[in-house]
Design brief:
Blueprint: H1 8-52, E1 65-69, E2 72-81, E3 84-97, E4 100-108, E5 114-121, H2 169-190
């Protein structure tokens, strides 16, 4: 079998064929996994909503409302029990985290008090900033039942009422920023 000569044309042709096959394979895998990834994201969001608000029997995903905020958007999911509003889950964010964007799901009752909070996404330092997650520390427990109108949602170092995560003040401040963004927008746009 003769060896193909190493010409410029043959090298470009080989590179083109390899690039085409690689991109076609990547596109095929993307299309194959797109729907399962979207479904998993939807299920994760639905679970977060269920965790932060009282029991409900409507479909809050269908009633969601998007409100623009500086740097992004907040998504409000009103939850109802037999037609009566029992709370609102707010998907909120901040870009002030040590590792970048932090996303929370905040459950607010109709009077504005906090039912519960779940960390949806973050890139904080493992063992430090990731202690904002309920399964890793009791940090979020201090917010349950509090009304941000009376409870200053700032770390104590900044004059607030929040006990910061030890050695993770930046992450604690980011958490408070995202929570305040949700609460202030709720009061301005959604509170009944």
């Amino acid at each position: 079998m003769s060896k193909t000569p190493s010409t410029f044309f043959n090298m470009v042709l080989t590179l083109f064929v390899v690039s085409f096959l690689s991109s076609a394979g990547l596109g095929w895998v993307y299309e194959l996994t797109k729907d399962p990834i979207e479904e998993a994201t939807r299920a994760k969001k639905a679970k977060a909503i269920e965790q932060v608000v009282p029991a409900f029997n409507n479909n809050p995903m269908e009633e969601r409302r998007v409100i623009k905020s500086e740097g992004g958007e907040l998504i409000f999911y009103p939850v109802r029990k037999d037609g009566t509003l029992v709370g609102t889950a707010v998907e909120t964010f901040t870009d002030k985290g040590f590792g970048g964007r932090v996303k929370l799901m905040v459950g607010l009752l109709p009077n504005g008090s906090i039912q519960d909070i779940v960390v949806v996404e973050h890139k904080e330092t493992p063992g430090l900033g990731d202690k904002m997650e309920a399964k890793k520390s009791g940090f979020t427990a201090q917010f349950k039942g509090k009304d941000p109108a009376q409870f200053k949602v700032m770390v104590k170092k900044d004059g607030g009422d929040v006990d910061a995560i030890t050695a993770a003040t930046i992450s604690s401040r980011a958490f408070c920023d995202a929570l305040n963004r949700a609460y202030q927008t709720y009061i301005k746009e959604e509170k009944p």
